[in-house]
Amino acid sequence: MTGVPASAAGGSSGAQGAPGTAAAADGVTSEVSGSASGPATAPEGGGKPARGGKIAAAAVNQASVWNVANLLTMLRLVLVPGFVALMLADGGYDPAWRSLAWACFAIAMITDLFDGHLARTYDLVTDFGKIADPIADKAIMGAALVCLSALGDLPWWVTAVILGRELGITLLRFLVIRYGVIPASRGGKLKTLIQGVAVGMYVLPLTGWLATSRFWVMAAAVVLTVVTGLDYVRQAIVLRRQGIAERSAALEEKEA
Asked: Is residue 88 within 8 Å of 152, Cβ to Cβ?
């Protein structure tokens, strides 16, 4: 699906002495072996790279889609229908089924925390992961919100606000991608965390003060959802203006 990221193609500093394209192949091999079992030892005196370096690089390119980060994303996608079935089992109000549904939701949210971190840390970013990861995130959250509203546990307007914001920001990212990428902010990450906690509390059959406190957690999640959404809109406007200005300046310079 995708090759080894550009950051891996540079290799470690110890491999810079290898000439030509052989250095690139040695760099890929060093990076892969270093992330899997510790730092690789470069040949002394800038000698030739290890035999089979290019073959190892090609193998990484072919198997990259099956890395652990993508497998966690796939697991999250598979958990979505299972979560829905557990949520709606026996009318949707059986405490045992709801507890199992919460466990399914919790696993999905935990994998969401780890797959992105693993992909960035160990250079496992692929085109499949870039597409599937946000889909999996929105699928499990959307399924939980819709199920809760359908069962009458959560007002529909809350579901509409959260899902509308998520879909709107995703569309906005695509609209301004020609000018640049809107990075994930700390507020956005906090929003995702609070949303997960709030939805998890609603999925569980809580009583007493815990049932009351989940209302306030969800209220905080809604506020963060709206505030961070407006911030992303602001970033998109600034990014578009900067992109247009840079293009105009480039055209003027070219004409001059």
From this structure: no
Residue pair 30/15 in contact by the 8 Å Cβ criterion? yes
Token reading at 67: 């890395």
pLDDT tens readout for residues 58-69: 434 434 678 888
Tokens of residue 134, six digits: 């946000």
Residue that the structure tokens 């810079």 belong to: 16
Residue 11 backbone phi and psi in degrees, to 5: 75, 180
Question: pTM for this one?
Answer: 0.69
CA contacts within 13 A on the Cβ side of 188: 14
Q: What value, to the nearest 5°, has the Cα angle with vertex 141 and ends 185 and 138?
A: 65
| Closest among 45, 46, 1, 49 to 28, alpha carbons compared | 49
For residues 180 and 56, give the distance between their C-alpha atoms in angstroms, rounded to a whole number. 33
> What is the distance between the alpha carbons of residues 98 and 243, in angstroms, rounded to a whole number?
48
Could you report the per-residue pLDDT of 94-137, keeping only the tens digit for each?
Answer: 999 999 999 999 999 888 888 777 877 878 778 787 778 888 88
Angle between helices 156-175 and 208-255 (to 10 degrees): 20
Among residues 63, 54, 60, the alpha carbon closest in space to that of 32 is found at 60
Q: How many residues does the chain have?
A: 256
Residue spans of alpha helices (H) in the chain: 6-9, 20-37, 53-63, 68-88, 95-121, 127-150, 156-175, 186-203, 208-255
